[in-house]
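Attaching the record inline, Q. Sequence:
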Amino acid sequence: MVQAQTRKAVDVMDDGTGKVPTAQVEVEDRELLQSMRWWDGFVVCLANPGFLIAALGGSVLALGTAGATVLWTASVLFGFFQNLVYAELALMFPTKPGGIALFAHEAWRKYFSLIGPIATFGYWFAWSSVLAVNGLVVGTLVQAKWFASTTWSASGAHFLLNLPIFIGIGVILFVWLFNVLGMRIGLWVGYVTGGLLIIPLLVLMFGGYFTGDWHSSSMTFSFPASSGDAALLAITWMYFMGWSSYGFEAVATFAPEYHEPKRDLPTGLITAAVFSILVYSLLPLGTGGVLGTKAISSDPTAIAFYVGAFDRILGSAGADVMIAFMVAGLILSMNTATMDGSRALYGVSRDGMTIKQFGVLSDRHVPARAMTLDMVLNIWLLTFFHGALPIIAAGNLGYFLAHIFAQSGFFLLRKDRASWPRPYRLSGALLPVAGFVLAANIAFLVMGGWVEANRYGYGLSKTLIGLAVVCIGVLAFVFRRVVQEHTSIHWRESTPTMPDAESTRAFESMGVALDGQVQRSAPLAAR
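Structure, as predicted:
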């Protein structure tokens, strides 16, 4: 794929003189650049620990330090197996951005065309809200460490402005500006901030063991005495944790931007998953063993306790450095969210699932309009909801729906497009695992998002906000079809059995033959 292609349209008309004048119109088609390698995708997903940082405090309050460690480990393992499925799906559609929402659309439109916009807007809202969540975390850490005595605030009509929110808004604007300048700039920032984030992560994961501040007695469970109630609490939190621990699927969203997608995309997905498994299991263990359940649970912000952990392990001066590094890493998380969410919205607009205006790239080859929508939305979320955990809860419904439709779509595509080229193919031995993960995610959504949301979660009202976002997505789909394209809504759409010309060229560049004999590669799990 090149930076830009020029397409010439020729209008031919006989004016009666025998001569045939022609009018030529040149239209520039901007495309996403194929500039990424697998390590770029991995660096993008170094942002994932930032999502854990935002949600760890709330999980310890509900589950205890040991309970949070067990469930975060289980949740990230679910994310790992999902990534094996997404490696196959991403390489089935190597020219299409959009990630798991796009996979859901391709698989389900044969059966129900509204699945695409439902998955798309749910996925986009969850990723977009990372900007507000991490902006607030950055502001809270900065205030707790360096401006603890600054307590001013202003409010009205349910909106709030204080120092953490003010700092968060500034960071959101910075990330937006950085991304609209172009993809490669964002990746280089990722290299730097991703490396900085690893340092405080290592301190939290291992520092307490070396200094003697980690104690096994600090690892406790806070589950209800009844085994049934304990199971419901665990299921509810497995739903809530998925917003964070499934996030490394974002590697698949950049499928058209990898230089060698057959190698780069699966490698990026798997390495990001392995890294996340280590962090999501060891960070709660290390931090919980240093502070204990009581110290973390007593923090009203559910964020500022990290300052106490660094103070205990390294002292105040060392904590200053670690908080600065952590802030840089959280900004990387926000960068990832902008990159991923905007490309998802751009990709589905190109596929006709939302209004046309979002399917346009800027002259720097980035979806700047989608990024701008993200920026405006997140400033609203930040000032209206005031807290990180309510924002996460509101975005989680759509995110889980996108995963469930993509995972079920994997099985539909195996049936409906059996001859479609698959440069990587999930091993048959792992199909039961994929089915189990799908069933578990459905159970997490039903129980955690609806049935037990008021009892063990963050309230059914947050789930209903997520449902409203999904409904807005459906209305945007109807507007695109009826108003902008002047067509009727087709509840079921015809689907191709083989790729189009553009995809065919992409497959051939990967060495996949399409001349009647589809090349079958070795199973992914065996590579």
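The two ends are 27 Å apart (CA to CA). Residues 437 and 472 are 28 Å apart (CA to CA).

More tomorrow.
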